Each structure stands twice: as structure tokens, then as C-alpha cells.
Batch of 2 targets.
Target 1
Amino acid sequence: MSIARRGQQWGTFARIWHIFDAKWQDPYKSAEVIRHYLMGMYKPIYHPLNDCGDHVVVINSKDIALRGDEWRKRVYFHHTTYHGGATWTLAWELHHKDPTMIVEKAVYRALPKNLQRRHTMQRLHIFPEEKIPEDVLKNITNQIKQLRPVPVKLDHIPQEEVDNYPQLFKISSKLYS
């Protein structure tokens, strides 16, 4: 086997580390994208019973965006397996307790219900902010594109760009005097 083919084969079977910025992203739509990388569905050797997935690092999970009034209406169920151990927690309460939990639950829900689900979840690394440990950061080689662009706040736009923005009409001061 030539060196080029050996390198290509190594690249196919290697576990790659990807990073995904969850800022202003819907966790349930993002979970579908993350699932493809966790399971290795983009690789030519993918098979549902083959464990060829990659690692995914999710940052800024505290800045996720749920649609509409889902912060107040979405409820998460948990049971301790003891009698009377059922609890229902609202999304905003769960996010306040642990800012990584909603993204984790969304990805867990997106994965197929089989025996590999828990092993696949071990390759998901979620951080509430942009701070990542150095040993994780040195492994990252790819970035997953965000589903929707993060809008820029008006007070973060430079004044020069605001002044040079094309105007449809000029407002004269005579109208207001």
C-alpha cells in the first residue's frame, strides 16, 4: 500500500475533534448536526453498528436560544426510580442550574435508541463558555458551521460604518422646526 493510500485510510478511521459554537443556536436543530459528527455519518465507512464517530466540543452552551416561549413552556422530566421520585423542571430552571444540560439532553434525544448511545455521548464535551481546557483545545482540528449567524448588536457596529451606510432619503431639519 502506498504512503498516500495509507494516509487516506488513517484519516478515514481516525477520530477527529470538532468544535461547535452554540451561541444563539437552537439546541434541538443543532443536535441533528452534532449527531452526524458524533456517529461518523459523514465518513465513507459509516454503518449504524460501526463505532466510527468523532469527538465534538460544544462551547457557549449558556447562550443557547429556544424558540418562542419555550423557556417557560418546555418541561424536562426526571425520575429517581424511587417511589414519588418524579420531577418536572422548566427549561429556564434547568438552564439556570446547569447551562450544559439542555444541549446534552437535546443531543441524547437526537441519537438513535440503541446500545451505543451512551458510548457515543462520552465523545460529546460541552462547556458553558468559550474557556476550554488546554488538553482538549490542542486536539481540535475542525469547526462545525453554525446553523444561523449570530446578529451583531447595534452598539458594537463602528460609527464609521453607520455613517457610510446608504440612506434612502435625507431628513431635512425643516420638517421638525
Target 2
Amino acid sequence: MALEHAILVSLMEQPGSGYELARRFDRSIGRFWTATHQQIYRVLRRMEADGWIAVELIAQDGRPDKKVYSAAEPGRRALSAWLREPVEPETVRHELAVKIRAAAFDDPAALVSEVERHREQHAALLARYLAGERRDFPDPAALDAREQLQHVVLRGGIEYERMTLAWLDDVLATLHRLANRPSNPGTS
């Protein structure tokens, strides 16, 4: 997926300025696709040049005009074509998992603080997702089709974080168990 597609999805949901779009990325789209504000602005300029988005200038008192972006017909067609392309399962590169395997050749206790740090970050992300769910989807039965699709993506993120926390708890328990063995065969 190119950043252009994520931006088009966001603009289809609601037109906005580059600043508003960047904030939306931070708040929602960033759950599954990250981009810096600089990347977003750079891609917006390219999408405007390619005719994928339309720009409306809004005059502001005492400030530069505000650019409000929306998806143009060529962008809508590009998004429609992209939606129909097959998606290959993602390859996972998980450095922490490799380090956990490497602990068999060193001191398993050496990884405990790093795994705990990862656990704290995933717990914080889960808390953010759950707060967002309460804020944005307080009544799931009343959601329209677009909101249902947004919610199902968020629920996927919630379940992923729950699964990751359960795995990290398992890793920590294993590391503690191995670290407390009288003789660790992986160390010399």
C-alpha cells in the first residue's frame, strides 16, 4: 500500500487540511499505517500535481489561506482500482522474537527489562485503542456502513494488542522460569 491510498481513504471519509489530515493519521489511520507530517505534506503535493485530489483555498483572517483537500475523480478511480488488487499476506520482521531465540545462547534474564518495556508500550497502545473505541463508537448498533468498517479495523488492532500482550506475558514467564534454573544450558 502506498501512502497515497491511506490519504485517499482519509479524504474520502472527510475532506481536510494537511494539518487536519496529519492529526487524523495520528489519531486513527496511524493505528495501521504510520506517516510523518512531512511525508503527508510531500505526498499531498504530489497527489495534487497528479490530479488525484482537489484543493480549495479558504481565506483566514491574519493567517495564510487554508488548503482543504478532497478526493478528486482520478483519485477515486485510483482508490477503486487499488481496492480490487490482491493483497499478499505481510511478512513479519520481529527483532524482539529473534532476540528471544538468541537468549538460548546467553542469559535469558538479560531480556526481561526489554520485554517489559515492549509490554508497557503495547499496554499503552491497547488503552489508547480502547479509549478511542469508547469515544468514537459508543453505540456499535447505531453505526452506519462506513463506521462499521472503521470499527472492525479498530477491533482488529485491539485484538492484535491483546494477543501481543498475552504473548509477552508468556515470554516474561518463560524468561523468569529459565533465569531461575540452577543451571542454564545456554550459558557458559
